[in-house]
Known about the structure:
Layout (H helix, E strand, L loop, with lengths): L1 E6 L4 H10 L7 E7 L5 H8 L4 E3 L8 H15 L3 E4 L8 H6 L4 E5 L11 H7 L4 E8 L9 E8 L6 H24 L3 E4 L2 E4 L4
Parallel strand pairs: 1-2, 1-4, 2-3, 4-5
Antiparallel strand pairs: 5-6, 6-7, 8-9
Helix pairs in contact: 1-6, 5-6
The protein binds 5-O-phosphono-beta-D-ribofuranosylamine (GRF).
Amino acid sequence: KRVVVFISGGGSNMLTLARACEAPDWPAEIACVISDKASAGGLAKAAALGIPTRVFERKEFPDKAAHEAAILSALDEIRPDLICLAGYMRLLSADFIRRHEGRILNIHPSLLPLFPGLHTHQRAIDAGMKIAGCSVHVVTEGMDEGPIVAQAAVPVLATDTAETLAARVLTVEHQLYPLALRLVAEGSVRLEDGRAVTTPSA
Length: 202
Ligand code: GRF
């Protein structure tokens, strides 16, 4: 399976996906890393692994539609089977998602459906949660609300700040995303009335 990874920043999740894809029998390869920011640190990390990168700097486009159109035409050339959003800090339009329905995954740093959106760690702490975590889900038109493919939980400690909790969650994100990508790439996940049903192969 050919995968395109979208990043906006450091790309630590992209890096773990890239490393996982280097395993010999891995059912996916990263064909390209796309970023909406030329300053994304992940671009250099991808290039260092020999992965092609493309930048679509948002401010170089007059509006969202033009920005997405440029990305969509690049995707028409690359023809990915899967798109992995990994620290991509921009919402995709309904049109974009429809063009790649069911093929877009995202990792969100909360146990969805709790805490969609931003500042998830502070909100978990403020809510008195004793666990937090991350979710890989299929991207649908609503923000952070598509079928959940996989989740990982971590404890919330009384001494936690948003930063310490974020670091603990990021560690398990790096374990979760490669697992979720493998399940989807090998066809072990099927979508059934809005839920992702996983039947791991033997
Ligand atoms: C992190 O906050 C992570 O929780 C979320 O995106 C942010 C950046 O991740 N998925 P990355 O290091 O750019 O992959």
